[in-house]
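Annotated sample (chain length 973).
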Amino acid sequence: MTEQRTPWTEEQVRALAPDASSLAAARKLAGRWRECGTADNAVWGLCQGSGAKPYQAIVDLDGPAYKCSCPSRKFPCKHTLSLLLSWSSGHVPVLRAPADFAAEWLAGRAVKAAAAPKAKAVPSQATVEQRRVRVAAGLTELDVWLTDQIRTGLAQTDRSFAAYESIAARMVDAQAPRIAEALRRLPAAVVTTEHWPELLLREYARLHLLVLAHRRLDALPEPLQAGIRTHIGYPTPAESVLAEPAVRDRWLVLGMRVSEEERLHTRRTWLRGRTSGRWALLIEHSFATPNFTGEVPAPGHEVDAELHYYPGAAPLRAHWGTRHGVPEPFTTIPAVGGTTIDAALDAYADALSRDPWLRSWPALLADVVPVLDDNGWQLVAADGTALPLPAGVHPWRLIAVAGGHPVTVCGEWRADGFDPISVFSAGEVSDLETEFPTETTATPALAELVSVALLGTARRSADNIAVDSAVSTAVPQHAGEPATRLLHTAALQDLYLRGGQLPRTASKPQPAVDDPRPLLPRPAADRLSRLLAAKSPFLPEWFAAATPFDFRLPDVLCVQALAAASDTSLRAPLLRLAGRRGRWLAAHNPAWAKLVDEFPGDTSTSLSDVSTDHPVPETGGVGVGTPAAHDVWLFGTAGERKDWFARTRRADPAAALAVLTAAWPKESGPVKAELLALLEDGLSRADEDLLERALDDRRGDVRRTATTLLNQLPDAAFGARMATLVASWIRVDDDGTVEVTVPAEVDAQARRDGITDGTDQPKMRWDTPDSTIKTLHQTIAATPLGAWAPIVHATGDTTATTALNLSLPPRYAKAIVDGWVDATLAQRDTAWARALFAHATPTEQAVLRRRELFTLLDTADRIDHVLDLDAHQLNELHAILPGLDHPWPEPVATHLLRLLSERARTTARQPHAGAGVYTDRALLTAASVHLPIDLAERITTMADTTEDPAWQQAFHRLAHDLTDRATMLEELR
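Output written by the structure step:
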């Protein structure tokens, strides 16, 4: 028996996931495992799925290798990943021997491992020679086609998809598939690229050079021969690669990128040896879906393993050999192998000299700063040297991580610039989520060659073209066919320019200011990223739980946060999390520039920060605290000023009012109304004078904000004026009949109070052009509810009930009830809310606002109302449940679970009774968001005792969501 294995860390398990969706799905399976165990080199378990028979999952830790009875084509599948996550968290017990189903599979693997490997069929020499003859014939036709294109002129030739497909099909027949791939990419590039003539000339010259090399293949060194065969598309069996010498090292996974072309998904993974500094590239393919094996560790991990390089003059692509350990995260990258800009250019030139058909070469650049200036995107080193990035690459994640500070960047150097793939900073590798560059820029040194190719050598001479002296020496003038000579010249000139490129120079930007707040923990940051991507309903709870900690986002998440901040409901918490780095980043991106003024200020400056050591001059007779606070209020952005004023208002309402009153004459723009709205926090009669001044403001939004706030002050003069108007317009007879007389035009004082603001409300809200309806509604909504007692001849708590039992005139009935609802919500009157909630309202608007009225009821009244609802009133239940506190009170939660359990039993007994899960999906979704998280175990028990499979799965999902929320909150602590 072998020694018991130490459980892998969660990081190691995450590294095995074939994609993010598999890992997310695996987390949702927590709690579905039974009969799990680990012994020796194996972990196994049974996972309950949607069917009656559970899935059998097994992991051989020595491979690692995976087995699951599910139909998934991903390896490892979500069940296997979930099993490993359970093992990692200590939830899998250690047993003496594997379960029978696991032992059977492990024994089969042992037998296969002990068996002698089957001999692979080796193609005969005649077969090899036959293929070479076929390839040579096809390449001869290709060369004729290429020279015809140059002779006729690129402007005159057929550049349609059909034309390229024809010659590409001939290359397939000639067994040169890699050349066919290159030809099939050209028509799309021609259509989408402005500088298509240069692109075509480069590609034609490259193919022409490849044809020439194949003609004299036997005279070339063996490594170069192998590289030429690879570029043409000769097969390279895995057995022959594994026969190459093994290179053992601790391989750092520095980057990974997935691309797709004609439903073929390709994953490229860049590795670098910790000791040797040597690069390796792993390439995997998956058709139709990006389902890749989990044997490649995730970026940021290293593994002690052997690699076997594919033969070639500049070997880069490799195949996995023997592994000597499991992937582990790394926090340092050694500088071996060269990490400067000069070293990257030298390495590329050396590789190009050995393999002229290379399109790129990996590079690691240490201590570089990404810059966006007049010359485009660049990476600038400490000495001022710089490398350009390809056109069309916008690495905002790189900019976010760097923040103007030096970082280490992994990427590829190409003919048109450095293509960044990942960035290493603070001990972590972050994927930049960039795609392969598709845009190109013109190369002036090729302009004359392109001009001749565009017109054609039949119309313009290919002699005496200005090229570098080394190129002109290599290509004799006036010798050979002009089109062939032009292709020779273009190929050599292109290689000369690519291999001899020198670095630029550039200046570094002003870096972002450091944010002293604590960093959001990694698990919580990953969680937030997933929640934002899914637009999860758990986001409000996450933000509420995170607010007291005042975390800052990891820099790499700032891009996602700023993009998600387009949703105004998420903007405030996201901008606070993004903090200084987010504001710096937004200022550099025109798409986010409008967010700069909305960022909150630092929490270190508020009016309450009074300092006797550093007195600040008074403004309008009001001391404004510390110098820092004074600067924020006078010179900060709109967002900083609003945030400062809000915090000051909470700390000292009177002082905040004094500051705003002093600054009021000079305030302008939208921020004026936004600052005024902040007086709602701690609103009192002391604010009345400023609010009355605001009623005379020229801006409509300021006037509307003032009336909204004055409406919340029933004892204010504004309310008295509204009560006077209502009393003069409405008369209640002794029999309860209401007579309403509203003038077509109101006086100047009423217009000042905002009664006539807006013109479309009657048409939109009550489907009538009658402006007196709007006038009456606005006045009632602004009238203190206490003023209705004398009007309706009622006293005390009976006012609301009496008013709602009046016989209202049909013309104004809806406007009157809507006015009462609006006034109740503004003044937060519990007695009126209780009466309106219970009243059968005659207006659609009041029905839609029942939930808001419900929130004003006492907690006990709200709970009692919910408990009175049965399984036949789930629509009403779903409508008002959001009006409860979060999480839902225990009696409500218990009642809801009982109702859902009844629905599940009804479905099991009567499958067509209309009580299926689909009918109640909205209620189940709300329950997953608001139920107390400690009910997960109880709901799991409900699932296990439920007979209907759909409800069983729904209860399991609900239990998982509660567990997930519990984990979400724990990650923040």
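Annotation: Residues 604-625 have pLDDT under 50 and may be disordered.
Annotation: The chain is about 45% helix and 15% strand.
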